[in-house]
Amino acid sequence: MLAKGLLEPAHDLLGARDSRDSLISGLRSYYTGLPSEVSRLRTGVKGIDDLIEGGIPEGFLVAVTGEPGCGKTIFSIHFINQGIIDGDRCIYITTEESRESIVKQASQFGMDFGKAMEDGKLIIVDALMGREDRWSLKSLDMEALVEKIIEAKKELGYGRARIAIDSLSAFWLDRPAMARRYSYYLKKVLSKWNFTILAVSQYAITTAESFGWGIEHIADGIIRFRRALRGGELKRFVIIEKMRQTNHSRYLHEVDIRPGIGLVVLGRIERRVEDYKLPPDVIRRIIEAKRKAEEIL
Hints:
- With 297 residues, the chain is α/β, with parallel strands linked by helices.
- It folds into 2 domains: 1-37, no CATH class; 40-296, 3-Layer(aba) Sandwich (Rossmann fold), CATH 3.40.50.300.
- 36% of the residues lie in helices and 23% in strands.
- It has helices at 4-7, 10-13, 17-32, 46-49, 72-86, 99-107, 113-118, 142-156, 179-191, 215-218, 280-296; strands spanning 40-41, 56-57, 61-66, 89-94, 122-126, 161-166, 195-202, 221-230, 233-243, 253-258, 262-268.
- A 9-stranded mixed beta sheet has the order 5-4-6-7-3-8-9-10-11, sandwiched between helices. The protein has a two-stranded antiparallel sheet with strand order 1-2.
- β8 and β9 form a beta hairpin.
- α8 packs parallel to α9 (179-191).
- The longest helix has 17 residues, at 280-296.
- It is globular, with a radius of gyration of 21 Å.
């Protein structure tokens, strides 16, 4: 039965189009329990935003996957830079490059992460160098990571927050069977703080499969980067494999990394599945490894 508050003003709404739309929106929210409009965070790459209805829904954990050299780190840098522009509290976790390397890389695309840190808009947590400073992790420990993220958020203050973890898969490289458990723990704890999270997951060059299975099942979205040699030239691609609450593109798009600009989407391409599908024997071995991992869990 409809709530009384929704029924009473109905007769006043029929004459005005805007009011009618408001009623429909209210009914949708009442029945679904969800807001009629999804608040989205721009990624900083317009071409990718166009594929996901304008951006990533607020509060989502999105897996950014792919082999080395596909553009995952640069995409993460764009995501954080857009947060700085939009006034978000931004945290970048780097496990495979130093803090200085991330700042330098961002500067190559006209993004001043150094100034953002000085202005209290960004904290870069270095999980590679093992330093003694406040914003470093001495080991790749999941509980220590979550505690450091919460500490950084408190330091940055109240407001919408976004995180890039580059890469999350580094935390289970020696324990791939723990991928799902660690991913679930991260999402469960940080969801209470309403973070929007990009979690990079490295893929093996030989199989194009992730180091540990689990983050894809836990994630609210999956942005998959690919690479391939075409005519002796390295080509990069992106596809949105999953994005909840979003009518996302289902097509492969070519991307490029431009000096002084960063990641750009060149456009949709026509490819047969046979052009990028793994050989049957490799797929069989991957499925078997996943089954064994499930047994361990």
